Amino acid sequence: MENWTRVCALEDIPRLGSRVLLHRDPDEGEIAIALFRTQGEVFALRNRCPHRGGPLADGIVHDRHVSCPLHGLKLNLASGEAVAPDTGCVRTYPVRVEQGLVHLRLG
Amino acid sequence: MERPHLVMVGNGMAGVRTIEELLKAAPDRYRITIFGAEPHPNYNRILLSPVLAGEMDFDDIVLNPLGWYHDHGITLHAGRRIVRIDRARRRVIADDGSEALYDRLLLATGSVPFVLPVPGNDLPGVIAYRDIADTERMIEAAATHRHAVVIGGGLLGLEAANGLRARGMDVTVVHVCAWLLERQLDEVAGRMLQQSLEQRGLKFLLEKHTEALLAGESGRVAAVRFRDGMQIPADLVVMAAGIRPNTALADAAGIHCNRGIVVDDTMQTYDPKIYAVGECVAHRGTVYGLVAPLFEQAKVAANHLAQHGVGRYAGSVTATKLKVTGIDLFSAGDFSGGNGCEEIVLNDAAGGVYKRLLLRENRVVGGVMYGDTADGAWYFQLLKERRDISDIRARLLLGQGARGDLGHQGQNRAAAMPEDAEVCGCNGISKGTIVRAIKEKGLFTLDDVKKHTRAASSCGSCAGLCEQILASTLGGAYTPVAALKKLVCGCSDYSHDEVRRAIREQRLISIPEIMAFLEWKTPNGCDKCRPALNYYLISTWPQLAKDDPQSRFVNERVHANIQKDGTFSVVPRMWGGLTSPSELRAIAGVAEKYGVPTVKITGGARIDLLGIAKDALPLVWADLNAAGMVSGHAYGKSIRTVKTCVGAEHCRFGTQHSMAMGVKLERMLFDMYAPHKVKLAVSGCPRNCAEAGIKDVGVIGVDSGYEIYVAGNGGIKTEVAQFLCKVPDDDAVLGHAGAFLQLYREEGHYLERTCHFVARVGLDYVKRRVVEDADNRAQLHQRLLDALRDRPDPWAERVAGAARHEFEPLHA
Ligand code: SRM
Ligand SMILES: Cc1cc2nc3c(=O)[nH]c(=O)nc-3n(C[C@H](O)[C@H](O)[C@H](O)COP(=O)(O)OP(=O)(O)OC[C@H]3O[C@@H](n4cnc5c(N)ncnc54)[C@H](O)[C@@H]3O)c2cc1C
Ligand code: SF4
Ligand code: FES
Questions:
Q1: Which atom of ligand 3 is the closest one to the Cα of B683?
Q2: pLDDT confidence of residue B94
């Protein structure tokens, strides 16, 4: 498996909830990534709302979306894009769940 | 398998709104084809008047550009009229011979203008006012001709007359009744309106019956003759004498019509494959001619087309506003008076202000306003909610502003505000931005404005202003919030009360159960409904229902208040505002040990530690717990503070031991969740140093006991608490306050503070349940105590390891 990093077990993230992952990025230094678990999938997004930097991992997860805890901006977890009429976008990371383990491609 | 085919006839406002709702509810259920007789995409018909007056262009009023149809895979045949429905073979046939087969058919053919059956009504120069083509012909006539006669002094006629006048024509309005807008206004307001229109140069002929339209030499209309022999010149005659539901097509196909196409509460016609919405429809015998009710119909029809099968249309009460710039007019409900009606009237002829409200059994049943309509939306809301107004009757005519409104410099005159004035102080949104969004994006409701501009989406105090801006921009087309059933959110078609009832009666004990039973439209709700459902569950079944942390806002999930930079604030409880040297020492210790950047006394009379990183919270709490302190719930829809004054314990005026009373109350209510936050205060005498007059429950000591006040609010809109009752001793205070709060917990809507709750149900109701009925009071109080018995400190639980995933990040 090239470039996939095992980060946690699926159970470590509550269903319809999230978990913060701290990662040392070669370019940006330590960054926070929010892991979200929906009904059946896991998504990873930079933990910083495009509006005013709110911690997305603290938001409420619904369907394939998260609502930012600070001012309610709604993001699509798959694309990292804000749901219209809001605008903005946040970086996403590829995720793979295998045998109950969550892997991320962080590169 | 191919998707079923939905064909719509009529590409107008109600029909396209139905398709929009359908795409939201079930995006892929149908292949969709639309036939529209007009060669245009769907546009905002109600803004034809500003187009006529030269205030807007056609491009400004397009609601769904061609790209919208394309993006949603909808086939649009613009400029093709359907001439026949073949129900046996389920197909429609257009005027150019083309056909389409349907699985479901949606009729949205609107209305046709009523043309007076008088000789000459087909002459060149005689125009009805319905669509953009008519409007263009009128604009053209205005450029080349002088005399216009508008037949009909209703909303449409006056808007046409105003527009033609603005384009320089000499305009006479002919009306059969004794005053203008007789269906919307009483005589006084009608006359005031006429006067201001006359000042703008319009002429009126009232109680005139048109007998014939006469042709001139060119063959074009040249004059109008009345039954009394009078004759006036006319190069342009606009027929605005009413509209008739456009039922010809349905009628010919044998679909049952009676005034309009008859539909049931699901908007289905007598043919189960065929639905109908809009002005062409008769629902329970009523035909509607304003967009607000039609949009409600659209929602219901879409719901059934999507096969969710839950919505019901139950009819609407409508309100109207005339869209003539500079003229302020509003009417709603029944204003004819009679049978048991009382009136309140304000008539300032010189100032040009007239307001008349009709009341029956202390409820607003109708109103007419002229000159000052700023409170129209508010009165309409009182009317729709059937709110008991006895408590505000004395100030009713003065309007909502007379009830205390801080925060916007008392600003409640949206129309008078300059474009750059800030409307939403939370998000910095100006009036101009909102007006632009309304026009450019075709917004109709407060909800639309919230979504598109963020105005009124934070504290909500500018919601009223935004509604006024909608009203003044759109005229009668805006849908006052009150006209819509207050849904929990867009994920379902149910109101808060309906959801609460279902939870109780069907014994639903989890969020998925509620969503399944009430057929939620989204897989697991949203950030609006889930917290509400979670609260309803735990307040209805305190022992049974399991709290769902993922349905709580982060503050309640992690028991601290999130800050703008993602850190948290921590407010330990100080029972009744009392503290001690050891507690203060512990707080000081925590502040030093964890480098807390800000330590502050709160407006709730306790200490706030601000700027603590999330992963440090359990450590901070552990130290506070060790000194005997617990959560102050400064973050929850829950009991916040019980403020007290020093009272009889120390004060030379104190009549009661307010500190002790406050501590008892706060201990009783520890960890109590509610529809919104709850604040109390106890003062030792009527000097009221603890500000009990603006609390959810305020207690004021007097020599012979305590006075209890409820439903005060010191926040967005200051509300003075109302006197509930007087009681002799501490136990009675606990019993009454507890029962009142339990009633609120059981019957309040999520996010409704006690002041809103009491305004909705009426103080009389609260008194009946809490004061007059001792048994019921005892039961309510007991249910509260049962629900709160032995509640642990949420901080201590987390220090012991609960919800660890919230506070411990992963590393990679
Ligand atoms: C900390 C405190 C300000 C202070 O430094 O003094 C405060 C801070 C906040 N208030 Fe407040 N309120 C504080 C006392 C008040 C008071 C005064 C009082 O409690 O006596 C009021 C008016 C009284 C009332 O509520 O009736 C008050 C009326 C509001 C409102 C408007 C409520 C309303 O119904 O109109 C909100 C907005 C809301 O709750 O939706 C609000 C919301 C907030 C929030 C929680 C906003 C939020 O959701 O993040 C603020 C958190 C700031 C932060 O960064 O942590 N705060 N807030 C006060 C905490 C008191 C405490 O010890 O618990
Ligand atoms: C000038 C004016 C001002 C108004 N102002 C207001 C206002 O301020 N507030 C308010 O609430 N309402 C106002 N209204 C009323 C509002 O516009 C209507 O209530 C609303 O447009 C009705 O929607 P509908 O879809 O039922 O009909 P329409 O919007 O009229 O749409 C019906 C469409 O069906 C087409 N059609 C008809 N028969 C066929 C057929 N056989 N085949 C194909 N297509 C067909 C028509 O050409 C038309 O385009 C105003 C109306 C006018 C004309
Ligand atoms: S005013 Fe009354 S209650 Fe307030 S401190 Fe003085 S005596 Fe006590
Ligand atoms: S920071 Fe996310 S909505 Fe404002």
A1: 3
A2: 97
Ligand 2 center to B176 CA (angstroms): 25
Pocket test for ligand 1, best of B608, B631, B669, B695 (most atoms within 8 A of CB): B608
Say whether B523 and A8 touch across the interface (CB within 8 A): no
Amino acid at B59: D
Measured by CA distance, the residue closest to atom 3 of ligand 4 is: A71
Residue A2 tokens, joined: 């090239």
pLDDT of residue B409: 38
Extract the tokens encoding B451.
């979504």
For B651, counting Cβ atoms within 10 Å of its Cβ (0-12 exposed, 13-18 middle, 19+ buried), the class is: middle
User: What is d(CA B210, CA B239) in angstroms, rounded to the nearest whole number?
Assistant: 11
Find the angle CA(B579)-CA(B581)-CA(B585) to the nearest 5 degrees: 105
- The model's pTM is 0.66
CATH label of the domain that carries residue A13: 2.102.10.10
B384 has a pLDDT exceeding 80? no
β-bridge pairing B221-226 and B104-107: unpaired
Mutate to test the pocket of ligand 1, among B559, B641, B677, B756 (most ligand atoms within 8 A of CB): B677
Local structure of B343: helix, strand or coil: strand
The residues near B105 (Cβ < 8 Å, ≥ 6 apart) are: B6, B7, B8, B9, B85, B90, B92, B273, B274, B275
CA atoms within 13 A on the CB side of B471: 30
| Structure tokens belonging to residue B524 | 């697991």
Total number of domains constituting chain A: 1
Tens-place pLDDT, residues B288-347: 988 878 988 998 999 999 988 777 888 877 777 666 766 777 788 877 777 778 888 888
Q: Is B37 in the pocket of ligand 2 (CB under 6 A)?
A: yes
First and final C-alpha spacing in chain B: 47
Closest Cα of chain A to B535: distance in Å?
15
Fill in the amino acid letter for B237: V
Find out whether B423 and B373 touch, Cβ atoms under 8 Å: no
**Domain membership of residue A89 as a residue range:** 5-104
Is the dihedral angle over the CA atoms B241, B242, B244, B245 positive or is it negative?
positive
Say if CB B756 and CB B677 are below 8 A apart. no
